[in-house]
Design a protein that fits this description.
668 residues, 5-stranded mixed beta sheet, 4-stranded antiparallel beta sheet, 25 helices, 19% strand
Amino acid sequence: MRKVFIDFETYSDVDIKKGGMYKYTESDNFEILLIGYAIDDGHFQCVDLTKFDDPQQFFNLVQEPDTLIYAHNATFERLCLRAYGYDIPASKFRCTATLSLYAGFPESLGKVSQAMKLTDGKLDTGLSLIKLFCVPQKDGKRIYPEEYPEKWGSFKEYLKYDILSEREIESKLRHIEIPAAEIENYAIDQAINDRGCRIDIHLASKAKTIFDNYMAALNAKVREKYGITSLKSSKQINEFIFAMTGKQFDSINKDTIDGIIKECDNEDVTRVLAARKIAYKTSVAKFGAMLDCVCRDGTVKGLYRFYGANRTGRWAGRMVQMQNLTKSYFETDEELEDAREDVKSFGLDDLILMYDNIPSLLSQLLRTAFIARKGYKFKVADFSAIEARVIACLADEKWRIDTFRRGGDIYITSAARTFGLDEASIDKHSPYRQQGKVTELALGYGGWVGAIKTMDKKGAIPEDEIKGIILRWRDASPNIVKLWRELENSAKRAIMAKREVPVVIGGRTICTFYWIPQFNTLAMRLPSGRSLHYPFASVKNKTIRYANGDSKDVEAICYYGVAGTADKGRPAGSWCELDTYGGKLTENLIQAVSRDLLASALKNVLSLRPGDSGIVGHVHDELIDEVLEDGGESLDDVCTAMCILPEWAKVFDIPLNAEGFESYFYKK
């Protein structure tokens, strides 16, 4: 197969960051300005459509059956081609951004260029040229190439180096073999993104207007009473707190506000900071995000980034970020439906009389703004305790497996084992069940005191009992503790001996660590056949410092990766050295296997009635199937299909279970 590396420079009046690439490319004012491409190792070629160069040779080339199309974030190029009448299937594309993520590298071309030290890396001149030629200016005017011919020449050079970068990434990662199943998963992901999910535009518009009016009134009250002109001004808020209490704070954000309120113990400070929390309530702002990216057919598309979480291969959210939507706390579905209709029917003044907390009300309705198309209905199904089931089976913790097989409550059984109680003495309302829930969510991946405190939002476990409970939980789950050690020791052996090290538990290989010389990469081959990658891996002696001042010298597994919010001391999104250990490796393994089971579930559900229905979304371990109202698959069909084990998982005999509901709108 010939490899065609492509990249486009384009123009649209839609802000791609707000509207997304689907809305961007469907605009009447969208056009391709420059087409850059190279065939295999051939020279760079540029088609300048602003100079009326004939693009037909290129369009013919990408449709040839013996070509594979390579692009960085290939969805964009695919949509551009579709806008020009060339609807090329996603299976024909190979995304170098996805390849980078799969190999453990960053997503953006610029960051990959730096991380891989590309010879022909991305140029840093592009942003200013894109702002000049690709978007309307502040006054609405459009700049054309003939107005700045020299800069237009630089833009072509910038395009050239994007093509060269893509090709070099593909070359440097040629040793990475992406399984055929992942190519199929990518095509499924693109189909889900293409289908999109319909939005209740009336609800979203009214909710946005109500919140805007609420914030205008709140700002006016704060300005009138306290002289603060902007609740988002840290300077003004700090000056106010100092005037009221004599105290100053380095940071006043959502993570610190509650602590500051407690420390200040001042009624006026409490009022102002409570108002600031509302001003930063980003969840409600998602109504505006929905409206910004809604397409002509009333749907929002492109909500998912395939392989966006590259330590596990899970999907990441885009645009509206469905993974972070607020839950509903209405007691009945009828109350939820009434609230939706109230927001659509009434204004702010009326709603204040009907509901105590307007921002909370609107947050709880976010999910319900996603609605089924006319003549369709949602069948929403969710894996039950998927990670707990996977870790039980891979660690061969038999009492846990037995609990799931008999349909038991893992929180109750875990609490009984941890506290030495009879299961019959613990019911759903028992404080022991709540403690069991906290320990199950916090301790499976080697969590210690901090993990318990993070999970224990209701204060179910007294602080002076935490350490003892952790140790009892570990005693009750010795095979899980053994799994942490096995994974850490096996990873270290693979790094130090530069060889393949299978991890065998209960006579079954649950994963295999192996060494890849390119980029000194530690890899973990999963049961599904795909691998997780840890570039520039090594074993180093490090001192771990704890919050209480204690420290410990350890032999740590180090690698380079993109820092997440949980990687303390490192800016989120930065490419830097990270470290891992048995608990984290267990988390990566279990979440990756759970992700592969969800990918299998997506395929199974899509095969039920191809063409009649389609998946419009998936959130964590849940999928949203949009089916024909009359004659579509049943909820039982969807749940059953989700739980069919793929061939690779049958050796573990994971007792999957899925439950769900039917609705004309999404909810939780």
